[in-house]
User: Fold this.
Amino acid sequence: MAVWSRAAELADRTPPSRNRYVDFLRAISMLVVTVGHWLAAAPYFDATDTLTTSHILTVVPWTAWLTWIVQVMPIFFMVGGYANGISWRAARRDGRSYAAWLEGRLRRLVWPILPLLVVWVTIVAVEYARGVRPELISYGSQAAFIPVWFLAVYIGIVLLVPATEAAWTRFGMRSFWALTAAAVVVDVMYFAVGLRWLGFANYLFVWGAISVLGYAWLDERFSERRTLLVGAALGFAALLLLVHIGPYPVAMIGVPGDPISTTTPPKVTLIALATMQGGLLLAAQAPARRWLAGRVAWTAAVAMNGNIMTLFIWHLTATTLVVLAAYLAGGFGLRLEPGSSEWWWSRFPWIAANAIALIPLVVAFGRFERPRATGGAPAPAWRYVLGALMTGIGLALLAAQGVGGYGSFGLNVWGLALALMGIGVVASRIGASRGVI
Assistant:
């Protein structure tokens, strides 16, 4: 009840001008991805009594169509564009510098990562010393760090907010179409010419275009319900054409063993998905905002957002703990064949077990999501940019390779070093100059 009371207090202080639907969509998108990851994970003991890692999309191919619903990272990036746009405009209006604005944005993004790194370095070091097979350590830590890929990308998008917001202010929807056209060109070069390395430019073009949709939302360019529904239909039609006629996979997430991933690097299909999902959700904005004007509904939204980042980055660590507990219990709950009717029914207790394992992690580490405010003059902007780039690259390496399993001391030294040093570059100024840690 203490959590609800704090949320109710914050809810009562919410200014009437705040778009509560933005906060609601941020929390819901994170929760949907969390549950989606839990449903996709399909570890089980095979006929030889060996614990086998599996993914439901590889076992039951038709579930790829469900990713058109549960892949809601486009909505998160659109919400991020809205929030970054309003924050940057407020900073300029108040005379705050880019450095001061960036410091505030980065603190909320990088601080929650610190305990995740420390905990997993400890786990990997202990398991390495115990002689656990490197491939098992690598798989477990890599699975746990899947959620941080979006932070690596989002940090880069945040760095470019002044440029993308300025482009939006000057060119309007033409800035969105320019980024979309660039993403299409990259995809053509990726598939037709074989320039696979060029595909990584779409981390900027695809997610940047989706973020610009957030600026359009902020400026009320999406107020006509009929236009939104037509846009959603066009996005859906574009998706169907791209996956049936084009070379794109049906799944809107990466599927193990699939040579083409929609997300690594991003493909233009994600922009079509954002158009479809965004059109449908924004068409429901008016009644949703009326509902969120109620005290109970808004308090619930505030409570969800209070620890949503912590919940998201730790939710697959909770899965690792559940699998470990089941393994130690002789494979309890992991002896059903993925995709069978019994397996699907077992998803209810499976999700409940993951949620229970996640609760103490959120309680223990949620405070890192609320760093104390800082005072005084900020450090030079280049310092925050450097720290952000180091952190983003480090997190990308950890998301791709895991924390450990191979290398010195069984650790992913480069990924960890870059991430920790990047956080240090941002945080050292905060602590050393203002006495806040």
In short: Confidence is low (pLDDT under 50) at residues 430-437.
